[in-house]
Amino acid sequence: MPTQTHPVKIRPVRPEDWTSVRAVTLQMLTDAPQAFGEPLAEAQARTESEWMEQAAQLADTSRACAFLAEDAMGLCGYVRGDSTEPRLPPGAVLAGQLWVATRQRGTGLGRALMEAVSAWGRERGADQLVLGVTETNLAVVKFYEHLGYADIGMRIPLPSDPTKQIIVMARKLATGSEVTR
Predict the structure, then answer these.
(1) What residue spans define the domains of the chain?
(2) Reported pTM
């Protein structure tokens, strides 16, 4: 769980959160430029209307979702869910762009954000959650393995650098509370 000194509130993205979605996206791309498959300059070049449209799409939780985490110091976490990815097997949803600010790492916030997107997937009838991790980010692979995800043997070229691969991982969604190891 997030630290007592910096309690965290996790909430779904609303259409009016477009400035927060922009801020957290730029922060995570600055913090970990190779982890999210999008160049920082590309995100910086988006217009206000594009950010507004993205937030509106994420707030319409029938197809996608996003969760923001905030503590007393501001934005400190983010995750997205998507049921529209055409490469997903039936009954699966995609979790992506999990990011936790340095000050909250190791507090359980990453797990809490993944639980939020897992609950969203279960509410939509999904039976598994799929995600991708850049092959150079082995510490994150270990984090997901600890949450019960397994490498399914699929590799996808990283869009921002096709010389790198994305490791595809998945786990079954429990019908009740999250199952962790």
Answers:
(1) 9-172
(2) 0.89
